[in-house]
Design brief:
With 397 residues, this protein is of the alpha+beta class. It folds into three domains: 112 residues, RNA Binding Protein, Prp18, Chain A (Up-down Bundle), CATH 1.20.940; 88 residues, Helix Hairpins (Orthogonal Bundle); 140 residues, Histidine kinase-like ATPase, C-terminal domain (Heat Shock Protein 90, 2-Layer Sandwich). 63% of the residues lie in helices and 12% in strands. Helix 2 packs antiparallel against helix 4. It starts with a helix and ends with a strand.
């Protein structure tokens, strides 16, 4: 039963009782449709009022019993559920009312005890839940610690694997370079002599044919001889690359200014007229310890590749500056660029994207820069161009 409703109905009866005590015998307590103990109490109270109103005897007796009932009801309203109406032997209306009051008090006491028991169970459940949450939190913390250790171990393992992979790649590259170097040296020497003899023979034949009637009657003979001469020159270039690759050794370093090396390189490397050359060389650059011949070889190779990447013209930019204890040289073009797949292989020996050539030029460049304890990097985007960055360590005092 709703305690609020009970109290309201009790208060209504108290109010009615108080009015009766002041002489209002026309008051009646309303009944609900529940017909419970309170309704029984209300019915009894109404009967009592009717009796009083009718002038029944024993008004003083009734007043005393009513005061007792009021006292009990007030005690119950204050939470004293041990109060009880004492039933007499008269079995009158007051006893019926007292019995209803006692039944109401028992119900309220039982409801209160049940509520207390439920509250105790809820508190115990809450304590168990808190303990379970504490255990779960401790377990989660242990799991997070284990995950952190596992992540740290995985990172260390990945770093070790990466270092091992780089070491293996460097070893394979070194072995490949050594084998190619030996092969290049042998093949270069074996081919240079017969090519030299062929070139001399072609020169002699051209000299004889040019003054003969054959040259006038068959002009294509001279064209074919020119083709042979050009192909001999191309073959000689390949042989020079092979020999250059096999002869790359420890650089003979000396103090030099990179500005002069760049200017000297540009005098050896003709820039086509349809290519705009821009130089951005910082002033007051420090000297570096380099093998000027080898560094010029690197610059010539990269600049030549840049001009060849712009057959329709473009812009070539050469920049030099100091950064993070290194002297950096950047060579950028606006040519057709390269895919990332090509960039990843660009320094591999014998890898080339050109119709002619054997793919040793950039491999030689990387070998030279590595021997200078520097680095060479490339960034490229198809349709926008390529930038090579050479980093040379500055002199230490």
């Amino acid at each position: 039963m709703d305690k609020t409703s009970e109290k309201e109905r009790i208060n209504e009866m108290i109010d009615a009782t108080m009015k009766v005590s002041r002489g209002d015998y026309y008051i009646q307590v309303g009944l609900s449709d529940k017909m419970d103990e309170i309704d029984s109490l209300a019915m009894g109270l109404n009967m009592m009022i009717d009796d009083i109103k009718a002038g029944t005897v024993g008004l003083e007796y009734a007043n005393n019993r009513i005061e007792e009932i009021i006292n009990i009801i007030q005690r119950v309203a204050r939470g004293d559920y041990a109060a009880a109406y004492e039933i007499s032997s008269k079995n009158d209306i007051f006893d019926a009312l007292g019995m209803g009051i006692n039944m109401m008090i028992d119900d309220i006491r039982n409801s209160t005890e049940e509520l207390h028991r439920v509250n105790e169970e809820l508190r115990a459940s809450n304590e168990e839940l808190q303990a379970s949450e504490e255990e779960l939190r401790a377990t989660n913390e242990e799991l997070q610690a284990s995950e952190e250790e596992l992540r740290s171990s995985n990172e260390e393992l990945e770093a070790s694997n990466e270092e091992l992979r780089e070491t293996q790649e460097q070893l394979i590259r070194s072995e490949k370079l050594a084998a190619i170097g030996q092969l290049a040296g042998g093949v270069g020497h074996e081919l240079r002599n017969p090519l030299g003899a062929i070139k001399n023979a072609v020169y002699y034949i051209k000299g004889k044919v040019a003054k003969s009637e054959l040259a006038q009657n068959e002009p294509r003979v001279m064209e074919f001889l020119d083709i042979v001469d050009d192909e001999i020159n191309s073959s000689n270039k390949i042989i020079s690359d092979l020999l250059g690759f096999s002869r790359v050794g420890k650089p003979a370093v000396s103090s030099a200014r990179i500005e002069k090396v760049i200017e000297s390189t540009l005098t050896r490397t003709p820039i086509p007229e349809n290519i705009e050359l821009t130089k951005k060389l910082d002033t007051g650059l420090p000297e570096v310890n380099i093998d000027t011949d080898q560094i010029q070889q690197v610059l010539v190779n990269i600049i030549t590749n840049a001009t060849q990447a712009m057959p329709e013209g473009g812009k070539l930019t050469i920049a030099a500056g100091e950064k993070d204890s290194f002297l950096e040289v950047e060579i950028a073009d606006t040519g057709f660029g390269m895919t990332q797949e090509v960039v990843d292989k660009i320094f591999d020996p014998l890898y080339t994207t050109k119709a002619k050539g054997i793919g040793l030029g950039l491999a030689v460049c990387k070998s030279i820069i590595d021997r200078h304890e520097g680095s060479i990097e490339v960034k490229s985007e198809v349709g926008k161009g390529t930038t090579f960055t050479i980093k040379l360590p500055l002199k230490t005092e």
